[in-house]
Write a structure and sequence with these properties.
The protein has 144 residues and is mostly helical. It folds into two domains: 2-77, Uncharacterised protein YqeY/AIM41, N-terminal domain (Hypothetical Protein Yqey, Chain: A, domain1); 86-143, Arc Repressor Mutant, subunit A (Orthogonal Bundle). It is 76% helix and 0% strand. Helix 5 crosses helix 6 (108-119), helix 5 (86-99) crosses helix 7 and helix 6 packs across helix 7. The termini are far apart.
Length: 144
């Protein structure tokens, strides 16, 4: 935050302040210091909230606000571990669904927790869900 203040990067400064406040509030709510994983969870929650806002702003034709939210997401993503690329995720989804014997959409509730654990925060849940649905759709078509 200090370097953002020195550089007069108001957007970065404000995003970091808001994030710091969210982390503090979460710690107060839990009545303990947060672990690194809990802090990463707070960051992911902030990103998700901003993505939801972007969707609403785009629907309301408020593109300047949506662009601001996207810029804030880019700042927040700097504090997350490096994300896995989509080709790695596709391979992981295929491998885990085979290992778990999953072939239909009904089994998504077994596949998603395994995917979330395997990626350990290096992939967004919505991306994993989309790829899992695509994989299971392919398997359903191939077996039909």
């Amino acid at each position: 935050m200090k370097s953002a203040m020195i550089a007069r990067d108001n957007r970065r400064r404000d995003v970091i302040r808001f994030l710091k406040a969210s982390i503090t509030n979460e710690a107060i709510e839990k009545r303990t210091d947060l672990t690194d994983e809990e802090i990463l969870s707070v960051i992911r929650m902030q990103i998700k909230q901003r993505r939801d806002s972007i969707e609403m702003f785009r629907k309301g034709d408020r593109n300047e606000l949506a662009d601001e939210e996207e810029a804030q997401i880019a700042i927040l993503q700097d504090y997350l571990p490096q994300q896995m690329d989509e080709s790695e995720l596709i391979e992981l989804v295929a491998r885990l669904s085979t290992e778990l014997g999953i072939s239909t959409q009904k089994d998504m509730s077994r596949l998603m927790p395994a995917l979330m654990q395997a990626t350990a925060g290096r992939a967004e849940g919505r991306v994993l869900s989309r790829l899992a649905k695509e994989e299971l759709d392919r398997r359903t078509v191939n077996t039909a």
